[in-house]
Every structure is written in C-alpha cells, then in structure tokens.
Queue: 2 jobs
Job 1
Amino acid sequence: MRWEDLPEQQCSMARTSVVLGDRWTLVILSDVFLGVRRFDDFQKRLGISRTTLANRLRLLEEHGVLTQRQYEDRPPRFEYRLTEKGLGLYPAIIALLDWGDEHYSDEAGPPILRRHKTCGHDFHGVMHCSECGEAVNPRDVEARKREPDDRFPEVKRGPLTYAS
Amino acid sequence: MRWEDLPEQQCSMARTSVVLGDRWTLVILSDVFLGVRRFDDFQKRLGISRTTLANRLRLLEEHGVLTQRQYEDRPPRFEYRLTEKGLGLYPAIIALLDWGDEHYSDEAGPPILRRHKTCGHDFHGVMHCSECGEAVNPRDVEARKREPDDRFPEVKRGPLTYAS
DNA sequence: TAAGTTAGTCCAATATCTGGACTGAGTCGA
DNA sequence: TCGACTCAGTCCAGATATTGGACTAACTTA
C-alpha cells in the first residue's frame, strides 16, 4: 500500500499521518507554535531544504492546518499562520514535546520551557478524560470499532499490556 | 541538513521526530496501543511493505519504545511490546487520534471509539496543566529557551496568534 | 508428506529528499 | 542610480528511502 492510500483506511491515525507523518512536519509545526511564521525563518532555524519546506507548507495549507496571510504590501509578502484546525494540534504537540523533554534532555534539562501564564508555573501536559475529568492511564482505556468493517481486518489480540 | 542530524538540535521535537517522524511509525504505534504485537498482523492490517515494517520496528526497538519478547519456544517466536518509555507516548497518540476523529470522520462518526473504563464513558483527551490542573489553552502558554544557544538562532517573532 | 504459519531478507523499480544555484520583486543606504 | 540586501520561492541532478513481490528458514498441523 502506498502512503497516499492511507486515508482510505478506517483509522484516524492513518488519516492524521498523511498530514503529519513525515520527517519535518512536526518540527515545522512546533516552530509555528513558537511564533515562527516566515519561510526563511523556518529554513534557517531548521536547516531543512527549501524544496522540502515549500512542499510541507503547501501540504499543511492544503489540509487547512495553516493559512497564508499578507503582512506586507510592497513587495507582497505572506506569512503562515495556524487555522483553528491547526490550533487543535496543540495537545499533540505538547505531548510529543513533553515526551522528548523526558527522554532526550541532557543533564541541564529541557532546551525549551513552557510556562502556563494562567498559573505562572512551568508545566507539562497531563491528559485527562473529557467525561469524568480524571487523568487517563493507558490501561484504563478500552478501544472498540464503531462497527465491523472488512477493510480493517481483525487480528488475534489481547488486552493492552506492556513489557516490564 | 539531514534527518539523522536532527537530534543534534536543541529542540525536543527534532529529537522526537527522529523516532516518530515518518509515514508509518505513528500508525504502527497506534496499532500497538490497540494490542497488535506481531509482525504479520501489523503487515496485514496496515498493508505496509515488509521491508519498511522491519526497519520501523527495529528503529522503535533501538530507541527503547518497543521490546521483543518470546511468546513461543518451538519455533522461537517474538512479539513486540511497549516499554515504559513507549507507554509514555499514549497522550500523544490519544491527541493525534482525537484530532483525526474530529477532522476526518465521516457522517457516522469516528471509526474507533475509546472508552474510559474508570468512568464508563466514551471520551476524548483534554490536555491539563501539571501544576494547576486546569485545561491548557494554547494562548495561555509562553515558551522560553533554557538559555541562549547559538546553534538555535533567534528569529523575529511575536506572541502566539493565529489566523481567524 | 504437503500445506500452512510466522518473521523476516533480498531485489530492482519508483518516489522522495538533498544542497546549491538561481529567479524575481522590491528595499535600503550612499 | 548603483550595488548589496531581503524574502519566498523554483529548478536540477545526485543521493536516499520506499515499494511490491519473491524468497528463505524453522517449525506445526492435517
């Protein structure tokens, strides 16, 4: 199966992966959330090739994650900004950054700190249940299909466990 | 810059992206969280090429996200399981699945539902602040570098905003 | 004994990513 | 008015990664 055929699958991660699933997109997006908006700034900060950057930004625009907006008349210049849909990726970005902070920081700690202005503290994200408000533990979650679907074959599997 | 050089960067997303940033890894992981553990099951469910699957699983093992454990003696057979480090990706997986559910579902709703066994309801994840416990809004977060670092050049940027 | 299961490897064709040069419109300073 | 600079890309050819399909290898089951 080719990557482009993934969205046909009955799986939200497959469809998400078409937009975010490549070497650069998540890094670009985390820069966008830091306030970076211009082509050359992305390019200089990330060291990504200009071709690939142009392709990624176009893809993100096509998928409604970013929009271009003019910030200068002469010469006409555009910058990339998050749409509401793009802003909806914030929890995922936070979760991925936190995971990177936890597992790949050096002795001095995470390279970038995030402060919750509302309470004034540096923080990390904790995933809570939308229904009861409690923090969610992976072992307390049970997944089920909406309905049987032959395109998404069943396999033998047990409950979620992990290697100790 | 090449993908392999990304982890040199002072950026947690760059380092995270080395492990997760490709077309298949997130999809494989979301299957792992559904309980899929065997090579052929991944391959049949995802339609990924066997070569790429083998490479991805090896990468995830090298990075300590999965481990192989023997589940059969004759012939010796191994299955892939999450380590504690891998289990730490659950918030990110939930956030990405929720985003896909929200933006790419058909009329009938998300293809897979997740139930919080603790409270008994189908749910989605809400990202909360580890310090004050409140739900986090992207606009209430302020990022800053731990310290100046020439390898990670500053750019002109304003506060986080988005296109309306 | 033949067919099936499981977990891969190997291969050549195709697709994607790379750095670097280049374009083009306009600004800035002297 | 000239020359250097800014910014957002495009274009190219070489390097790298992904693809589907065939194949291996060890063992089980009918």
Job 2
Amino acid sequence: MVRTRIAPSPTGIAHLGTAYTALRNWALARREKGQFIIRIEDTDRDRYVEGAEKIIFEALEWLGLDNDEGPNVGGPHAPYTQSQRLDLYKKHAQKLVKKDKAYYCFCTKDRLEKIRLEQQARKELPRYDRHCRHLSPAEIKKHLSANDPYVVRLKVPQKGVTVAHDVIRGEVKFENSGLDDQVLLKSDVYPTYHLAVVVDDHLMKITHIIRGEEWLSSTPKHILLYQAFGWKLPIFAHLPIIRNQDHSKMSKRHNDVSILSYRDRGYLPEALNNFLALMGWSHPAKKEVFDLQDFVTHFSLERVQLTAPVFDLTKLNWLNGIYIRKLPDADLALRLQPFIPPGCPDDIFKKIIPLVKERLVTLADFESLTEFFYRDIKLTTKDLTEQSRHSAPDTAKALKQFTHDLEKLSSSAWQTQKLDAVGHAILKSLSWSPRELFMTIRVAVTGKEATPPLFETMEVLGKKEVIKRLNYASSRLRRDFR
RNA sequence: GCCGCCAUCAUCUAGAGGCCUAGGAUACAUGGUUCUCAACCAUGGCACACCGGUUCGAAUCCGGUUGGCGGCACCA
C-alpha cells in the first residue's frame, strides 16, 4: 500500500513549492490507489503564523489535491498536527537516549555561540564539539535534578558511511564524520524537524518520502534515526527544486510564490497544475496539455528529471489561455464571477464572454478588455484622425454618414451581419481603405485600437449607445476643427 | 570553506551508444487569414559547458575541469 504525504509548515503563505511537491505525492498515491496524507509541521513556535494552516488547505482544495488523512479530515493516525504530538516525540527521544543512540546536552546557547565563533575564526566548519556526549551518569543526574534545561542530540557514529538510496538520483553517500550531532529535542521540549519527521513518517506508515532536493543533505541524519530506532526505511525521492530566473531557489523576492495569489490573479487551477506537472517531468506521450487525471495515470518517479527547472510565467500564461478557451461559455461565466468589474451589467456580461474568451490570458484581464462596454470612454480628435490619412472634416463626414445609415436599422435588425453590411456599403461609397474606416469607427465607438470584432462589439453595445458614441465623436471632430 | 546534487536552444523539455547534420513546446521574428487585437496556420533563427578517455561509432558510458544550485541552526 502506497502512502505519501506532504508536511507543510504554517509559516504564512501556501507556497508554490508545496503545490509542486503535493501534486507529485498526490498523483503517486492516486495512481497506486493508496493514501495521500497532509501533516502540519508546526514545531517552530517562533515562525508560527495564525491562520496559515487554513490557507494551506484552501490552496490545496482549490487545486483539487484532496487528502485522505490530515487535520482537516482526521484519520487512524491522528492527530496530524505535530504540536499535538509532543509527548510522542519526547517519548521517542528518551527511547533513543536509553538505547545510547542519543544523549542529553546541557550546553547553553551562549556556549554554542562561543564555540561557533571560535570555529569560524579558525576557519573550521561550525558544528557541535560533542562536549556533552561523554558526560558521566553522575554529571547527567546532577544536571537533571538541578532542572537544567537540556536538548537531546543524536549520537552520530564517528566512522562509516551512510548511503541514501534515492529513486531519482541513485546512491548518495555521506561520510558520517561529516555529520553533526543533530539536536532532536529542543529545550522547549518541541522536537526538531528531523526527529518529528522520522517519528511521524514511521508511525503514519508513510512508504514514499517525496520531497524537495533541499532535503537531500539531511537524509543521512534521517536514515541514521531510522536505524537507531530499528525501523524499516521508506523509499526516498528528492525532487529537483524550482528556481528563479536567476537560477537561485525560488523565492518571493523574484516570483510570486503564493498559490492563492495565482487564483486571485485569475489563473485556473487546471492550468497551474498542468504547468507544475511540466516542471522537471514530461508526459511519456510528449503531451504538453493534459488534465489531472491524465497526470495521475502517467506520472512516475522514473521520468522525473534531475535538473532543477526555472519558473517561467510565460509558459503558465500560455497554458492559462488554453484552458480558458477550452471552457464552455457558461463555465467561463462561473469562473469569472469573482472578476466581474464594478458597473458591469449582468446582461452585457453574458454577451461579452464569447467576444473576449480567446483574448483572455487570465480571468483578471476581463476588466481591462471589456471596460469600454459599460463605462464612459475617453476620446480625442487625435485618436480619431490618427486612424486614417483623412482630414478631420472628412472623418466627421464619414462617421456622420455611417451614423445616419445605422439609424435606419430597426432595433430588431441590430445584428452583427446587418451592421457588417451597412459598414461595407459605406466603405464602397468612400475612397477609404477598410482598415482606415473600420479603425476610425472602432476608436469612435470603443476608444480603443484593439477590441473584439467591430460589428459584434456594436451588436452587444446596442443601437442607442453606438449612435450616442458616434454622434459624440463626430461633433467632437467638428468642434475641434473650428 | 566543507559536504552533496546538477549540466541539451532564452525557458520547459525529448533523448537511456548508431534512428540526432539533436525532436517537440513556450517565447521571439517573418508571412498568411483579417476591420484592430487575439486565436489559428506556415516559415525561420536559437542548444548537447569544456578537455581527455572507452568504442568502428558518444548528447548518451568513464575521468577531470569549469560553472550553477542546494545544505551545513535548539528553522522547516
């Protein structure tokens, strides 16, 4: 039975890296009909942010990555929040001390800081000098009975090599002599990540640990811990990390890394999932566009790349446009609900959708693309006359004539086809190029040079509004000319 | 500094010794369509970091160099 997990820390936003890792863990569990677990790692009380946990679940739910166990849904290994499992970690730390695999360390932070500075001055690598590793039982007892604060440290073997078997990278070897005696239990009796992650992954029967590459160098510590407890090792897979454009580890300094901000900026979850899936992995059928279900059936750790990919918003934009265009109008209307601009009437909103669908990169683009439909437009003589070689009086005359012909159309005949016919009839009687005439009209009616097709736009705008705008444009031209 | 990981177009990638004078996608450029933009179609330029070795033959295997990244906390 495959059991995977993600273990985010509630330190603020829900990070894109979490979505990236979650997607892979989730897909593997779903493919194997196993379980996907979410565990909250809130053992750092200094970095804890109220409400951060809620944001994480909101983000994953938006992406459609549902979990089988976790603080939100419970499960056989509850609780799934580490701060509620403190006794467990303490018990396990003590167990290791009893087995002589760990030891109490009473060194003060001041002392640790001092030796660190000394080591730095001597250009040695900063690490614990193992002062308390060889304390006599009497000394330990003395400290304990004096209620001296302590931490529990792992007794890392001085010799030998710890080998990590990584599904993606193969064998990775670490000299034990290069490993520090890692703190397992902090003086506030909270566990460190290393203790908590190993205890929980074992107790929760996690079979595959799929996490970011930044964890690779702490894997030997974890393996040592598994061995100290006498537990079976899980399968490790270290994913390449996502990078900024400058190739450093992705951070908010260079990118927007908040999952929910992508939602708020008008990205579709299916686009973000598809995009994230393509980072460091490729579809065996070489597909670029595929849904979550397709990803589940085709995802495998074997196809994961070793090179860390660069986050490329351009490609996300492309995918987002594709997914928007794929949406039926009614569905798009639903997705657009949070993005309906102030002052946009419902009937207009519905009519505009097919006109802008293939022009939207994000849902948030809707407002800037459609504003002129329901808000006053700004217009200058220059805007109008710039569209052709013709003079202002001639332009006014042409617009006036067009307006005149439009007025003859009954309200029921106010349709794209009829409007198109009127437009082309005028074109024939003038010596204007199609582009000149229609651009001039477009600017007169919309105030913009790039809009949906002119006559469709006019149909949606309605006879009254179009005539009004045309009249304003020609009067403006005449006035400025005089 | 030490330990570890990595190295194909600008970017995402295909490639697991001959199918590669390196394929696809995005982006870019040009053209087509056209009332503009978008979409769509076509075309184009752009890469195996370097040096050795193994082999009849290397982007693919090995070694080294260089470069990039990650980790070295009572943070995760």
